[in-house]
Amino acid sequence: MKHTTDGERLSFYQFGATTVFASRMDQRFSYCLYVPESYDESAPGEYSLIVAIHGTGRDAPRLRNEFIEFAEAEQCFVLVPLFPAGIGTAGDLDAYKYLASDDARYDLVLLDMVKEIEEIYLLNFDRFLLNGFSGGGHFTHRFLYVHPERLAGVSIVSPGVVTLCDSNRPWPAGVGQLEDTFGRAFDAAEVARVPANLVVGDDDVQTWEISVAPSHPVYIPGVNAAGVTRVTRLQALAQSLRENGNEVTVDLVPGVAHEGYHLLKPTFRAFRQMLAAARPAGEGAAQVRP
């Protein structure tokens, strides 16, 4: 049912393509949602959850809108966090991509957003699908390493710098010493359980934004071992995940450069397959919960 007024408990602005809400955990951050028209607050039912992470441009509401048609077809809630630039350090663009900084734990903020919407909408999202383009692709594959138990699948799109699934390389070049930063050890078997779709345009070969020089704050020896362009780095990440035992699909999209909205079709195709695989036999899309 498409809402044209307030509901019994929820505001008009909490249905459909919602307004932007501050995170209850940390009001420096916010999120918007898409709530399927079928959602009934008096009988919530079961839905899948897709979390989409913005790139450096931080166009969260538009990103949410791009998922609406898919969300209706597959009966999914969509959560898009907004991690503003300049948190902690004026002008900083990149902290969220690495999940943690001196000023914030972006991974924990996201997990609390999921818990918050579970409580608001009376739903349960034990595991969810996670997608991210560019800076969001950074976040997505690193979140996979730190919180694999929360994921039903990932679509990692055009990350500029990758963390290889390699315990012999220290974080963030690899997953060595993960516990020092996040307080939990790398669980290779749990990571391997999560199917991974990797996407990049075959013309995404500019390097001006993704070179990691020794003077860069996140530089450590080995951080450039995955190649120079986003294409070669994505391929190195795919190989690293395969060696870990993950089910990996790679989509190299012809004629596309660093243009996230031209790279969504492979994500939708992969997510549709992941949802179908998680769906008990005989159940339709409205009953899916990864």
From TrEMBL:
**Molecular function terms from GO:** hydrolase activity
Q: Which domain of life is it from?
A: Bacteria
Gene3D superfamilies documented for this protein = alpha/beta hydrolase
Indicate yes or no for the key word Hydrolase: yes
**Is Signal a UniProt keyword of this protein?**
yes
* UniProt keywords, alphabetically: Hydrolase, Signal
Which PANTHER family does UniProt cross-reference here?
A: FERULOYL ESTERASE (PTHR43037:SF5), UNNAMED PRODUCT-RELATED (PTHR43037)
Please identify the protein, giving its name as recorded.
Answer: Alpha/beta hydrolase
